[in-house]
Each structure stands twice: as structure tokens, then as C-alpha cells.
Amino acid sequence: MMKSRLDVIIESRTAERAVKAKRLAAELIRALREMGLDASVIGSLAKGEFRLHSDIDILVKGPVDGVMRGEVDRIVRRALIGSRIGCDIVYLEDLPDDRRAEFDAIVHA
To answer: Where are the domains of the chain?
Structure first.
């Protein structure tokens, strides 16, 4: 079946956005690790299911105090300026135990 022009445009934009998201995610992970944080990309980007309106999801493990969280927020905001890609930061320590196990399994899968 032949794809419509709209389908081709959407596929192209999705692919471009996924490339940009991967680059940004790598920059964010590198910056967070330089801060001494254990961070991983999770969600649709990690699973290879990134879509046109997906965002970047990052899991931060270990204890992170309020000052460090503020710095994480600043790093994320600076990295994403003008990208039109959002980012969700999930702090493992904030999750209930049953959810922690679920996220830990995702990271180690």
C-alpha cells in the first residue's frame, strides 16, 4: 500500500525528532553523570518507540537533595531550549517500593 504524502511527512519529522531527542538525551545523561548522578534514559526513547509528540524520560537513581534537584532542573531547561522536546525526570527514591522494582527492572533489562 502506498503511503500518503502526509504519512511520509509525519514519518520524516518523527525520525528527525527522534535523532534530536537521542542527541539531547545523551547530553543530559553525560551532564548528570558529571554531577555524580546515576541517570538512565527510560520510556519510549529507550524502547525505540519514540513518536512525533514523545518526550525524553530520564530516571535518576540514588539520593538527590533539593539543591541537586534544582541543578538538574537548570541543566535540563538549558539543554532543551528551543528544541520543542520535553523531558520528564523520575527520581527513583520518590517512587513507592512496587514502582521502584518496576523501574529498576526497566533499567537492567
So the answer is: 5-108
Count of CA atoms in the C-beta half-sphere (13 A) of 75: 22
pLDDT tens for the chain, 109 residues: list them.
Answer: 788 999 999 999 999 999 999 999 999 999 999 999 999 999 999 999 999 899 999 999 989 999 999 999 999 999 999 999 999 999 999 988 888 777 665 554 4
Burial string for 4-18 (b: 16+ CB within 10 Å, else e) reads eeeeeeeeeeeeebb
**What CATH number is given for 5-108 in this structure?**
3.30.460.10
